[in-house]
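Need residues for this backbone.
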């Protein structure tokens, strides 16, 4: 039995793939990037518009502050504070929406990559396929399965 243990261990097949590099090569990632650029631009345009309106009202307030009655001054100051709060809330909401949308769009791409790695591992008999981006050492007997996974995904 002790003689069979080394043979069982040596019969295992190990592979590695750089998932970060592979992910960046996937054409779906470029599509997600374009979609995210469009969404980012929409939020940036809206935020710029809100900031311009705030600056206009602030400059108007500053120009008229010296001649305003105290009650009007307080109302205008409150309006400016509320505008600042709305801008800040919009900014926070936009960041959250952008992150959520990016995760939503990238999830199927991650899943596709994971399935391709699993398919290569199953088809070619790998015991383990490790992520080489997180590896400290890769031995000479470990196989780089990146070419096989790229073929599985149709990436050249």
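Answer:
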């Amino acid at each position: 039995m002790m003689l069979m243990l080394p043979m069982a261990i040596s019969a295992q097949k190990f592979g590695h793939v750089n998932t970060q590099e592979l992910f960046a090569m996937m054409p779906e990632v470029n599509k997600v990037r374009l979609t995210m650029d469009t969404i980012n631009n929409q939020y940036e345009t809206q935020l710029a518009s809100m900031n311009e309106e705030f600056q206009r009202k602030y400059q108007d307030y500053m120009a008229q502050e010296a001649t305003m009655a105290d009650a009007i001054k307080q109302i205008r100051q409150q309006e400016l504070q509320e505008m600042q709060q709305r801008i800040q809330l919009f900014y926070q909401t936009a960041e959250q929406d952008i992150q959520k949308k990016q995760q939503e769009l990238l999830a199927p791409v991650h899943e596709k990559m994971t399935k391709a790695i699993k398919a290569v591992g199953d088809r070619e008999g790998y015991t383990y396929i490790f992520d080489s981006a997180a590896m400290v050492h890769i031995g000479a007997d470990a196989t780089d399965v990146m070419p096989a996974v790229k073929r599985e995904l149709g990436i050249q």
